[in-house]
Specification:
12% of the residues are buried. The protein contains 2 helices and no strands. It has one domain. 70% of the residues lie in helices and 0% in strands. The longest helix has 33 residues, at 53-85. It has helices at 14-40, 53-85. With 86 residues, the chain is mainly alpha-helical.
Length: 86
């Protein structure tokens, strides 16, 4: 049974919130830059260059955002553990 005025859901942890902020603020500019570069680049006829949204924009942008997310979560978690020991 929930305590009055408390439904039992605490929401996202501080680590998750900072991870989401980091993924958004790092991933969005990287994604935008990659999208812009992909839109500018054009393959010459007959040259076997690869040109694609998925392989050159979406996947690298997602990887950068995930790295930022997990790095921020790890840094906040490490700082929280260090502060808990004091």
């Amino acid at each position: 049974m929930a305590i009055e005025g408390h439904d039992g859901y605490e929401g996202a942890s501080q680590r998750t919130r900072w991870g989401c902020f980091a993924a958004f603020f790092v991933g969005t500019p990287v994604f935008t830059f990659l999208l812009f570069v992909d839109a500018l680049g054009d393959c010459m006829p007959g040259s076997g260059c690869s040109h694609g949204f998925l392989s050159q924009v979406l996947v690298p942008g997602t990887i950068v955002a995930l790295v930022a997310f997990f790095a921020a979560r790890a840094a906040i978690g490490r700082r929280q553990r260090r502060n808990d020991r004091r």
